[in-house]
Design goal:
single chain, eight-stranded mixed sheet, 14 strands, globular, binds adenosine-5'-diphosphate
């Protein structure tokens, strides 16, 4: 794992705990990572999937190997017990790594949370009240918090919100031009998601350029199964492509990104229920709708083999990225770096090349050879003299959560 440079608070005081357990509880999964924030290394990690289904799966990366067990896991409480048992059985032993904090990924913090926060009854209440804005995410996040509070009653627990980094957006970027009562009574506005990734990657891009975050403007293109772009001016997010929900913006694995708002009433007019419409937007749109797969690897292979649907899917996704790149270039006025991150952003040289093809006159000069280099480390894919640096920066959301949690705990 590469280390983050310049993160205050990541070095341990001798003898003081430096381990943070990061918990990311999804609706049917529990991801966890034990991170030593003094060295920015992962000591152990795991993923428990298909919680609540007849056959679950638990994979734990211990000290020297990965252990996979197929076993039913009924709920998040049991999943947490499975994780703790895996640490005992396969290491690293939690007794050898006293916890400085437990850091929880929490998807929606609304407008109340623009920074990580200690978990209190009040915070749990606030996250509960935000469930209507994140019905798929906040409930399992709360379950993760509840079981971790039980398992580690004496350890400070911190919520790190996906929305927090985007809270700095100016009103002209987060306001939708919709009726006042929708905005005021129903809290409809752009919130943005993937914030920990955008925060980490924009800072890492500045570090890569040898500059302080305050001295650079970066456009981050996070392209995984979910995808979002952000414009970060001097370390501060000024715009992002996801909105009230994580459906807006870029074309994603199974989500369409930007569509005409009139589509909802049109489809309901032809017989779709609101709930079917919502399910379709979340699960059967995007790359999957266009190419039959939501995985760029399959789509690229099919496009190479001459499949026109796969070709179109790639072109639509790349063109949407390019439009956001153009929009955010003007929003920022001056751009120092464009950073590609997440599954496809980090691994698909084809997609990256499509996004910036022919933009040399705009100062984005791809180095085709560098673009083909595969590396787990941050690297430059533009020519050395490209006015805008094109970078690949592997995202490290869990490390960012661990570091944010550690900083908060050490300063309170
Ligand atoms: P998530 O949003 O689920 O965290 P990831 O960031 O892990 O997603 O990205 C997963 C996606 O990344 C895959 O669905 C696939 O489209 C893409 N991906 C992963 N590896 C490669 C690769 N080698 N080449 C192209 N795309 C890749």
């Amino acid at each position: 794992m590469s280390s983050t440079s310049g993160s205050p608070g990541s070095s341990g005081t001798s003898g003081a705990p430096t381990a943070v357990l990061v918990v990311n509880a999804g609706s049917s999964s529990l991801k966890y990572q034990l991170i030593d924030v003094a060295t920015s290394t992962t000591l152990g990690s795991g993923l428990i999937e298909k919680i609540g289904e007849p056959q679950g799966r638990a994979a734990h990366q211990g000290v020297d190997d990965t252990y996979v067990t197929d076993t039913p896991v009924h709920d998040h409480e049991e999943a947490f017990a499975v994780a703790l048992h895996a640490f005992d059985e396969h290491g690293p032993r939690l007794a050898d790594h006293p916890l400085l904090a437990v850091g929880h990924r929490v998807v929606h913090g609304g407008t109340s949370y623009s920074a990580p926060a200690l978990i209190t009854d009040e915070l749990v209440q606030a996250v509960t009240e935000l469930i209507p804005l994140a019905p798929l995410h906040n409930p399992p996040n709360l379950q993760g918090i509840a079981v971790a509070l039980q398992a580690f009653p004496g350890v400070p627990q911190v919520a790190v919100f996906d929305t927090a980094f985007h809270q700095t957006m100016p009103a002209h970027a987060y306001t939708y031009a919709i009726p006042k009562d929708w905005r005021e009574q129903h809290h409809v506005r752009r919130y943005g998601f993937h914030g920990t990734s955008h925060a980490y990657v924009s800072r890492a891009a500045a570090a890569f350029l040898g500059k302080a975050p305050a001295d650079v403007n970066v456009i981050v293109l996070h392209v995984g199964n979910g995808a979002s772009a952000s414009a970060v001016a001097g370390g501060v997010c000024v715009d992002t492509s996801m909105g009230l929900t994580p459906l807006e913006g870029l074309v994603m694995g199974t989500r369409p990104g930007d569509i005409d708002p009139g589509l909802a009433s049109y489809m309901m007019g032809v017989g779709l229920t609101p709930s079917d419409y919502d399910t379709a937007l979340n699960t059967s749109c995007g790359l999957k709708a266009l190419a039959g797969s939501n995985d760029y690897r399959d789509i690229e292979a099919a496009a190479d083999g001459g499949d026109p649907a796969a070709r179109l899917a790639l072109d639509v996704a790349a063109y949407r990225l390019r439009k956001y790149l153009g929009a955010y270039t003007f929003a920022l006025g001056h751009v120092d770096a464009v950073a590609f991150t997440a599954g496809a952003g980090e691994n698909s040289s084809t997609l990256r090349a499509l996004v910036v093809a022919g933009l040399e006159d705009q100062g984005l000069v791809l180095d085709a050879e560098a673009n083909d280099v595969r590396s787990r480390d941050a690297h430059r894919i533009s020519t050395q003299d490209s006015p805008v640096a094109l970078l690949v920066i592997p995202t490290q959301e869990e490390l960012e959560i661990a570091q944010q949690a550690a900083r908060l705990v050490r300063h309170t």
